[in-house]
Amino acid sequence: MQFLHSSDWQIGMKAESVGRTAERVREERLEAAKRVVQAARDNGAEMVFLSGDVFEDNAVDRLLVRKVGEILRAFPGPVYIIPGNHDPLVPGSVWEHSVWKDAANITVLSKSEPVELDQCILFPCPLHEKYSTKNPTAWIDAKNVTKPAIGLAHGNVEGIPNGEPDYPIPRDAANRLGLDYLALGHWHSFARYDTGDGVCRMAYAGTHETTKFGERDSGNVVVVEIAHHGTPPKLTPVKTGRLDWRTVERTVDQPQSLEAVIEELGRLDPPDATLVRVIIGGVLFPEDRHALVRIEELLASRFLFGSLDTSALIPAPDGEGWIESLASGSFREAAVKLRSQAAQSANPAERAVATHALLQLFELYERSRA
Amino acid sequence: MILHSLSVANWRSLLNPVELGPFSDRLNVIHAPNGTGKSSLFEAMRRALFDAHHVSGEEIGAVRPWGRSLAPQVKVEFTQSGVRYRVEKTFLDGASARLFRFEEGKFRPLADSRNADSKLREIIAASDAPGRGLSKHEHWGLSEVLWAPQGALHLDSLSSSVTENLRAALGVQLTGERGSRLEELLEERYQTYFTKGGKPRTGKQAAPILALESAHAAAVVERQQQLEQQQRFEETSRAVEDARQKRGQARIEANALRDTVAQTSKQAETYQQLQSELEQKRLTEQAAKDRFDAIGKSLELIGHTREEITELEAKISNSGTLVTELATELNNTAKAAEDARRKRDESRRQRSSLVQSTAAVEDAQAFVEDNKAHQALAVRIEKLRRFEADLRQSKEKRTALVAPDDKTIQAVRKHLTALEKAQAALRASLIHLTVKPDKKTKIHQRSPNESQTVAAGKAATFSGSPEVTIEIEGFGTIHASGPEGDAEANAEALREAGSKLTKLTQPYGTQDPDRLQLLREQAEELDRNIRQLEEQISEVLDEDSADDLNQRAAELDARIRERLGRFPTWEKQPPTVSDLKSALEKQRKTIEATIETAEDEYDKAQFAARAVEKRHGKADEELKNARLNLEAAQERLKDLTKDGQSDAARASARQEALMAWEAAKTRAKECEAKLNEIPGDPQKDLQKLGRQLKALEEAETQARDEENQAEGRLQTLAAEGVYSKLAACEETLADLKSRIQRERLRMDATKLLYDTVTSCKAAIVAAVAAPVERTATHMLNRIAGPRLGTVRLTENFVPVGVRPEIAPEPVELTNLSGGEQEQLFLIIRLALGQVLAKEERQLVVLDDVLNATDTGRLARVLNLLEECADRLQIVILTCHPERYRGLDEAKFFDLQPLCN
Q: Mutate which of B226, B228, B723 to test chain A, going by most A C-beta atoms within 10 A?
């Protein structure tokens, strides 16, 4: 048998870090959901398993619920969903929406009890509250089954640094419970848990579309193939994410280093699906000031979203530079003073303000010469 | 700039051409009386140097000489930057300008007309004057500092070019070559965000951050609302869950209770049947018991009634005997009582003899008392008669005696004194003529007309008033006279006093006061006797009258005589009352003892008769009752035995009833034992369980209602998509926060830049102004002493005050005296002039200054001017040349002869 494993769609999530691009990011998650269905079709999946957190919250806009329902309804095979900790099965949850009843191929698994299908037996572990220290898979006993035993669970595999235990799942849960495959949800990056012999019987599919900067291996689904009960499953990650969340972090210590950043930004493609966060620290040389302005312009105009963080940037010691070209007097003395403050103040916020003040003086100076 | 000469014509009061020069390049004093045209010279020089020749308007028109159509002309010769120039200008009619430069020993034309104007300004570094109007002091270039027009010595402000020149001359640059532009741009940037006071701009041109912060505040409020909605959603979800739990639990409990109710109901039915059965058996048992009791009671009553009849028959027999005996006793006691009553009545009749004896004793006692009263009354009547006779006698004597009272006696004494005084005064007022003849001589006095003969050697005195005239025989007439009037008045007073005395004493027959006093004492003695007698009479009468006493005496006498009529023996021997009383008392005691004994006897007999009567009545009554009771008992017995059965038959029936009762009791106990096997009262338990079940069903219904309501609310909240709204709101908030941070950084950077530049500038300015302040302070101390301390200048070299060493705060200029103010402004102009004259000597013009400076300080100012002349050419215009004569090296120009 062959099925598609996905999770953590987080439909309706908020994207505070991208400002006014947030709405677009949300829309992209729905588009990615369509690509998941398409991937299932393309890869011959007989059914689709969604291991929780399809929605960011139970109070998301009901229109989004309807849209997700319609997207899944388009899949020709059955779709099995368990509620996760973001969308637990509680009164008023998204799972009470009529779309789930309307769509004949979708089953929201609401009880922790085996569900026998033609091809396999499902062991679903739906969540009924946001937090718990209970192992959601503890009830499963698949040792005596004859069909492929597939577990669907949402939680933290032990060993993942997560502070307080929250829906803990043992690292050897699949083997211990007799499952052929445990389809996990909760973490947004693809992660597999191989046994000593290199067989993988449990994995996080990760989110189908990256949710923020810094996610390691997100934007995938997993196509799983199991010949029959007891045989090792074959896992194939398939890319479904479209947005590229790119962080460009550079520490400048040589003049004209920012040109490389500009070039790198120029290579990012497609720009309309790329969100860029540029962090520049180090020393700002006078001749690079224009490059900094160009970076700002590029970020504002070229990409879906761009941000520039120069709070760790300080002006370079400017021996023969533009400050010396200022006539002796109050401006030159002020520039020297600001440069010293930007480089030597113990307070990072004060350094940033002094740096910007110096940049402003430079800009005004340039204008006065024009 | 050094001024060499100045020529003026047709300029205000200077009608004729006036030419002054050559000037000394150190000190010059141009003097003339008021109205001569000193200030006009200064004005003409300024117009020549700074104004365009073609200016028009009222102001330039005013310099034309009054009432004449002459064109004002001026010619100035000067040296600037080592080059000598001459400018010639004509204003108004035929306006023209020509500029010459001294070349190769003579002046050669350099420019004319407008070119001359502009070239000249360029040479002296003056800024352009406005088109048609005249130049103001801000257009004078350095002369704004160096030239002080009349009445305008003070320095309120300096143009920026002069300030820059001063700073340049001091070797300091504030903003650099392009500093002004940079400064403008910075100012422009700063004012994008802040007011000049440093506060964020508001209103139409508000700093962008304000709009962002406002939007942020609104977003915060909205986020809070959405957050509350989200929490409400989650709480409602929990409420639904709780209600479902509650309803499920209520349903489980109700179902469990329903089973209990069914079991209890069955048990209650059994219990009820047993209860009913027991009740029936108890009734049967009670009926058997009642029958047994009834038979036993009947037997008992028959026995008791028979005994009662026997007792009553015996009692009736005894009572009949007793009644007969008591009847006999009753007759005997009644007779004895009657005898006792008769004896008692007889003894009571003896009391009448006591009444007569008592009356005799009372008469005897009254007789003795009346006799005693009659004797006392006779004594009082005798005393009364004697006192009344004495009183009549004393009153007659008193009536006969006329005596004055004390007041009259005092008046007599007073008038006697007045009489004596009048006599003495009369004697004193008369003329007394005493004649003592040697021989017997007859002397005749004319008034009064009398004569007397005076023996030899005897003195004879003749008195009179107002004169005394005597005729002496053989001698003649002697007439003596004295003052008139006094003697007559004294005689009148004497008469009046005598008259009053006579009038007062006439009733008493004497004017001798001692005798009058004696009369007074005699009258008082009589009055005392009368009062004493009256008191004695009153005491004898003791509120009675004499008639009362007499009448009472008559009554007593009548009563005495009446008793003597009844008891004649008392005439000779009056009765002894005590003896009579003793005899009477003895008789009374004897009679009362007899009566008491008789009464006691009677009471005893009476009591005994009544007791017997009572016992007889009671015995008779008992006899009657016993007979009635016997009849009743006999009737009852008859009724009890009417069944006709024998006593044995009745005993047998009683035994049968006892056995039936025992059997019923056993059956009832068996039923009760079964009932006791059931614990409690199932009926009551059933009622309680019914109520519990009802409460659980109601709780279930209520939980269902709550669940429905909560679900309704939850669906409403879910339909709102509150999380999506919250997410959008928080994204907006994050975006605004980011933009505010950027804007804040931009603003903070601008402010930091502005503040840093400003503080650097302030530090530089402080350094720039310091040398000028030091020079000015030094000059001021030389003129006014150290009292005023140091001079304070603004960054634009305008004085703002002084800082005395003893004062904690600077003192403003307005707080200085008028003289000190003009001295301060003068030295600041001189100090600034010295700064400007570092590279080239400069012309200083002082028009009518130092008018408020005293002579002492003026001398010190003149010393200062001489020292300043090393660097400055100084031209002083004044109407008091004598004040400047101390300037040894000064060149004086008297304007007045030149004008004439």
A: B723
